[in-house]
Design brief:
Layout lengths: L4 E3 L20 H12 L10 H8 L27 E5 L24 E5 H7 L3 E2 L2 E8 L4 E5 L10 E4 L2 H17 L26 H13 L4 H14 L4 H4 L3 H5 L7 E3 L10 E4 L5 E7 L5 E10 L5 E7 L10 E3 L3 E2 L1 H4 L5 E7 L5 E11 L8 E9 L16 E4 L2 E4 L8 E6 L4 E6 L5 E4 L4 E7 L2 E7 L1
Parallel strand pairs: 1-8, 4-7, 10-17
Antiparallel strand pairs: 2-3, 5-6, 6-7, 9-11, 11-15, 12-14, 12-16, 13-15, 16-17, 18-19, 19-22, 20-21, 20-23, 23-24
Helix pairs in contact: 4-5
């Protein structure tokens, strides 16, 4: 029996107006599927670019890596791999496909469940389920435990499990809730270890009874933290979807818990009154990564609005008038009818990056019209790098994609080969070094501490040798 409408507000999150309008008044299974329809059409990111995103999504206030698997301290390595850190699928990728198949799915590069993780803890965690460790303990570093599951509930399997620290149990619970909601269309392909937590072929409730109770318990006992709030906003800027269980923690109760007989009511403050662009949000940054000259990369940006009254217009423009880089980007549409924007799924805008000039390229998209007033127009930044040697590894401590300072040495690399000049000057303007770039990392040894000016890849950088 359906009960009365129950309303609550998000006490913390800056939920975009109109984002959750389509699930207003829904209950249990219909609510979960409605959220699935909102979440599924997000921008699919490149797994190889995750290190760049982690710089924004998983960083302590002091600038160190915020990982939830150990108490060790790690430092970011520019946009490149970090020694001792893995890119962890907290919801194991083996659960929905084989190693070869997993990368084909959007979940493979979904930032909402990908976290930096200390390598030893991550390797020990493997693809085991979440649980409460007791009895046999295989690994314990004070933050992560791996051992036999002893969660006290009927049907709870006595198998190897991963137990996070209490301060992160809510984080993992809300992550798993997001995954079975965003990807409820994966219900027919759960494999092996996942079947100790999930049900095969059912989109609702999708969790087994014991795992549902455990995750609800974790979510209740470990409320949403500022870390989760900040991360949710950062992911939204890149991926253009959100974790609704962070925006509204009580949603879990409406879908699986003590409020399943009540209708979820979106707060009035979050309901769209007039035309509003729900996705993308202001400040969205699409990073294409590195590509060779003439090669093409494509990303999809979901354009979704509420109560649009006419077509949206998309204007591709040069961010810096002195650098006409917009020519390297192409939009699949420059005008989108209101009836396509106002759908639950939104409009999939394809953006292609096909550079022919070596270097870093930035452009922007201005989205306007549709009934939006000028203050509601949205700008999206596009960024990519063209290089002869894409995805080269960068030494530990790199401060940018092409310059690395270590003790008395300046390391540098050019994006092209034997074309772009590299010049190094001292603070007095005296030329100390000049050569054609090789495309590989090259070392210049400084004779003394001080300020040095490096001209490379059509830009000038100041570096300090201490």
């Amino acid at each position: 029996m359906i009960g009365f409408a129950v309303a609550f507000t998000s006490l913390y999150a800056a939920v975009p107006r109109g984002y959750y309008d389509s699930v207003n008044g829904k209950t249990d299974q219909a609510l979960k599927t409605g959220l699935h329809n909102i979440l599924m059409n997000h921008t699919r990111l490149n797994y190889n670019n995750l290190w760049k995103y982690f710089n924004a999504t998983d960083v302590h206030p002091d600038g160190t890596v915020w990982e939830m698997y150990s108490d060790q301290t790690f430092y970011f390595n520019g946009d490149k791999a970090i020694d001792g850190i893995n890119r962890e699928h907290s919801f194991p990728k083996s659960w929905w496909g084989t190693s070869d198949d997993a990368p084909k799915y959007a979940a493979y590069s979904d930032l909402n469940h990908l976290y930096p993780a200390e390598a030893k803890a991550n390797n020990s965690k493997s693809n085991n389920i979440l649980g409460v460790v007791g009895g046999t303990i295989n690994f314990d570093n004070g933050v992560s435990k791996i051992g036999t599951n002893v969660f006290d509930y009927t049907g709870s399997p006595s198998v190897k499990c991963f137990e996070p620290a209490d301060e992160y149990k809510g984080d993992f619970a809300r992550t798993y809730m997001y995954m079975v909601t965003c990807y409820e269309d994966y219900a027919n392909q759960w494999r092996a270890e996942s079947l100790n937590m999930l049900t095969l072929g059912e989109t609702y409730p999708m969790f087994q009874e014991w795992s549902k109770e455990m995750l609800l318990e974790w979510s209740r006992n470990d409320p949403v933290s500022q870390k989760e709030l900040d991360r949710n906003e950062a992911v939204f800027k890149f991926q253009n979807n959100r974790n609704p269980f962070i925006d509204f923690p009580q949603l879990a109760e409406y879908i699986w818990g003590d409020s399943i007989d009540h209708r979820f009511q979106v707060p009035d403050s979050d309901i769209a009154i007039d035309a509003v662009l729900v996705s993308p949000t202001q400040g969205t940054n699409l990073y294409f990564g590195e590509v060779k000259p003439g090669e093409e990369l494509t990303m999809t940006l979901n354009i979704r609005g509420i109560k649009m009254i006419n077509s949206l217009t998309l204007w591709l423009y040069d961010v810096d008038l002195g650098n006409p880089f917009a020519k390297y980007f192409q939009l699949s549409a420059t005008s989108i009818p209101a009836e396509l924007v106002n759908t639950e799924d939104g409009f999939p805008l394809e953006i292609k990056y096909t550079p022919t000039e070596i270097g870093e390229h930035t452009a922007g998209i201005l989205i306007y019209g549709g009934g939006l007033d000028g203050s509601e127009n949205v700008t999206v930044t596009l960024n990519g790098v063209c290089t002869e040697n894409p995805n080269l590894s960068v030494p530990i401590g790199s401060l940018s994609p092409d310059i690395y300072v270590s003790e008395q040495s300046i390391w540098f690399r050019t994006y092209d080969v034997n074309k772009s000049p590299v010049q190094i000057y001292n603070v007095y303007g005296n030329l100390l070094y000049s050569s054609r770039g090789s495309g590989e990392w090259t070392e210049y040894r400084c004779n003394e501490p001080g300020i040095y000016i490096v001209r490379i890849n059509n830009k000038t950088k100041k570096v300090i040798i201490k």
